Amino acid sequence: MSDFNTEAKEAAEAVENAAADAGFDFNQRYGEVIGKVNATLDKVDWSHLGKIGKIAGILLAVIVAQILIKGVLDTINLLPIVPGLLELLGLVVVGTWSWENLTTSEKRAAVLDRLQGIKKEYIG
After folding, report:
1. Can you give the pTM of this predicted structure?
2. Dihedral (Cα; 71, 76, 78, 84), 10-degree rounding
3. pLDDT at 1 over 50
4. CA 83, 84, 87, 93: dihedral to nearest 10 degrees?
């Protein structure tokens, strides 16, 4: 029985020593990799990447906003009566806007003029 305990203790010590060596090797290797990454990043000319960074940031913000909006809409969709009420509200808003802006030819022409003005402003 004592031989078994002695062997178990020796095995446990061997495992601890191997883990300590592996931990040291990992820390050393991790430090080397981080050093190489930092050296590579220091060589990059970041002044030319301004537009790319802005585009990537905007794209990331849009993706996060879409995920949040989808979560909110999915939550609202789980409520039994709210989706139908929101559809009815959308129909009322579209109907009211159409009645106010599309009933006469002058109003329709004014809407087209506004749309063309917006198009010229943003597209050129």
Report:
1. 0.42
2. -140
3. no
4. -110
